Amino acid sequence: MAEARKSMIKFKPKKYKVGDTIKVDFIVIHPMDTGIKKDKKTGKIKPAHYIDNITFSLDGKPFTTMKVWETVSTNPYFSVNLKVAGKGKITVDYTDNMGEKNSKSKKLKPKG
Amino acid sequence: MKRRNFLKTICAASAVAAVTTPSMVLAKEAKPKGANALSYDAAVKAITGGKAVTKSDKVSLTVPEIAENGAVVPVKVNVESPMTETDYVKAIHILTTKNGNARSADVMLTPMNGKGYFATRIKLGGTQDIVALVEMSDGSFLKASKSVKVTIGGCG
């Protein structure tokens, strides 16, 4: 599929200062097929299709890398912490087992 | 006589159909296995390399006691750690004991995270334990596990 998947990065709490530890939530719309479930329309078994690698980076420097499997729920949600050291850009790159590559980024703007 | 024969054959045919079809369907459904099927013990061995794993209070695992829907089970892991350059949480592995593929997520953390925290949502095929296996920067392994009751499985 060529079209970009819907994804979202959220910072919690919304207002944060330099030195705070915030949550970085990443949500993506993805089927996460296990490869053992049948398609209700065709009756055939759907091939496994899941996200396998995720990288969270700040200004190009990765701070969390993940390897995940099909046992993660449909439309997965991942949450990690980050200590805010200043302004920057959070980028989340993810690939799936069918070779799809995507990325999403959001600017980090601490106040005060 | 003709009518009797006709009815007989019909009855026989339907009986055969009734007996064979469900078993054939079952045989077909039992066949597929996940591409990454790996048992819990094998997964732990692959991660730790045979090293000892100790149960620790430092690792707190937050999961629901009863999951109504096995397809979406929230999992939250908090690890007590100063997260400095010399002492930090290196990795958090989320494992399950009875899923076809025991592994769910391997999360590699760095001191930049500030806290040893990870949360996600996973699928459970049935009632089983969720295990958080944590690797610290000094090479030791800690673990915490909790049992989750599942009323509707979420893997098939």
Quaternary organisation: heterodimer
Order of helices and strands of chain B: HHEEEEEEEEE
Counting DSSP H or I runs of 4 or more residues, the number of helices of chain B is 2
Instruction: Compute the number of strand runs of chain A.
Output: 7
Measured by DSSP, the beta-strand proportion of chain A falls in over 45%
Q: What is the terminal-to-terminal distance of chain B?
A: 50 Å
Q: Which superfamily, in CATH terms, is the homologous superfamily of chain B?
A: SoxY domain
Biggest interface, residues from each chain = A-B, 31 and 35 residues
**Main beta sheet of chain B:** 6 strands, mixed
Radius of gyration of chain B: 24 Å
The CATH architecture designation of chain B is Sandwich
Q: What characteristic shape of chain B results from the CA principal axes?
A: elongated
Low-pLDDT ranges of chain A = none
- SSE string of chain A, helices as H and strands as E: EEEEEEE
Task: Output the keywords.
heterodimer; A: about 110 residues; mainly beta; four-stranded antiparallel beta sheet; about 50% strand; B: about 160 residues; alpha+beta; Immunoglobulin-like; elongated
Account of the 3D structure:
The complex is a heterodimer of chains A (112) and B (156). Chain A is an all-beta fold. Chain A has no helices and seven strands. The mean pLDDT of chain A is 91. Chain B has one domain (40-150): SoxY domain (Immunoglobulin-like). Chain B is 24% helix and 38% strand. Chain B contains two helices and nine strands, in the order ααβββββββββ. Chain B has helices at 2-30, 40-48, and strands at residues 53-55, 59-62, 66-69, 73-79, 89-96, 103-108, 116-122, 128-136, 141-152. In chain B, strands 1, 3, 5, 6, 8 and 9 form a six-stranded mixed sheet that branches. The relative contact order of chain B is 0.21. Chain A binds chain B through residues 21, 23, 34-37, 45, 48, 58, 61-74, 76-83, and chain B through 32-36, 71-73, 83, 96, 99-101, 103-110, 112-115, 117-123, 154-156. Strand 4 (61-68) of chain A pairs antiparallel with strand 6 (103-108) of chain B.
